[in-house]
Amino acid sequence: MNDTTENPTEQSAEEDKLPTPDDFDMSHPSNINPDVLQNISVNLSIEVGRTQIRIKDLMRLTQGSVVELDRIAGEPLDLLVNDTVVAQGEVVLVNDRYGIRLTRVVPSTERLKSI
Hints:
By secondary structure, the chain is an alpha+beta fold. It has helices spanning 8-16, 34-38, 55-59, 108-113; strands spanning 44-47, 77-81, 84-94, 97-105. 22% of the residues lie in helices and 25% in strands. The termini are far apart.
């Protein structure tokens, strides 16, 4: 009999063994190198509002046309990261540039629902 042949009962017991925390050690979030994580680029955008428009109306737009959005004036703007709303805020002017002052940060539990 070959020494490398395993006993069938030993093999099935090994297959049924539950994984230990050590089995997932490398995939644990705290083991991610923060330098690598901090260098990942994401798309950040500010959304004033949205609307739906027919193509025929889109084709009629010219300089000076006004497109009505779904937001009321004064409502907070959405801050999106990779097309997911992560915060809301208001427009501010900083050294002749636009910025956004955050007034609400969406809790991570709420963000996960939208994925």
